[in-house]
């Protein structure tokens, strides 16, 4: 039984590798193929970071300088995760992401700039949450 399973696993692995090779020559050079697993993991990370931001901002006390640093760090992580989903002048196999990722990253950059200001302003974080809800309202 194990030998039979092994015989089917080898062609499967070769097929996965060959798909990546085929994509290199069949898609334009500025095309980013996003695996479903990659999208799910990046979206899960974005959600995790957003929940961490919410937990900091839902505290009724004023935001401390340590919390401000945490907010800035989380926004940088959000920016990195979002950028891995094909920001800029690239296209991907996910049309909804293509349509909204640049606007989302712009919202992140605005929130980052405002959170880094002295004094910090966290109003743009609300727009950032709204960006998530706008794309995921039908999910």
Number of strands: 2
- Number of helices, where a helix is a run of at least 4 consecutive DSSP H or I residues: 5
Q: What is the CA-CA span between the terminal residues?
A: 41 Å
Beta percentage is under 5%
H and E order: HEHHEHH
| Overall average pLDDT | 79
Domain count: the total is 2
Poorly predicted residue ranges: none
Largest sheet: 2 strands, parallel
Shape field: elongated
Instruction: Report the helical percentage.
Output: over 70%
Computed structural class: mainly alpha
The strand line-up of the biggest sheet is 1-2
User: How large, in whole angstroms, is the Cα Rg?
Assistant: 20 Å
Question: What is the secondary structure topology, with strand pairs?
Answer:
Blueprint: H1 2-26, E1 31-32, H2 36-57, H3 65-83, E2 91-92, H4 95-116, H5 123-136
Parallel strand pairs: 1-2
Helix pairs in contact: 2-3, 3-4, 4-5
Short description:
The protein has helices spanning 2-26, 36-57, 65-83, 95-116, 123-136; strands at 31-32, 91-92.
Description:
It is a single chain. This protein is mainly α. The chain folds into 2 domains: 31 residues; 103 residues. 73% of the residues lie in helices and 3% in strands. The chain is elongated, with a radius of gyration of 20 Å. The model has no long low-confidence stretch (mean pLDDT 79).
């Amino acid at each position: 039984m194990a030998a039979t399973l092994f015989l089917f696993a080898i062609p499967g692995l070769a097929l996965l590798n060959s798909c990546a090779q085929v994509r290199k020559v069949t898609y334009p050079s500025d095309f980013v193929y996003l695996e479903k697993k990659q999208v799910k993991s990046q979206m899960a990370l974005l959600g995790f970071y957003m929940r961490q931001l919410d937990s900091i901002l839902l505290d009724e006390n004023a935001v401390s300088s340590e919390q401000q640093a945490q907010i800035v760090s989380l926004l940088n992580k959000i920016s990195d995760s979002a950028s891995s989903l094909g920001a800029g002048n690239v296209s991907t196999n996910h049309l909804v992401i293509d349509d909204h990722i640049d606007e989302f990253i712009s919202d992140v950059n605005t929130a980052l700039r405002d959170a880094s200001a002295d004094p910090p302003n966290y109003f743009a974080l609300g727009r950032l949450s709204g960006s998530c809800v706008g794309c995921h309202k039908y999910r």
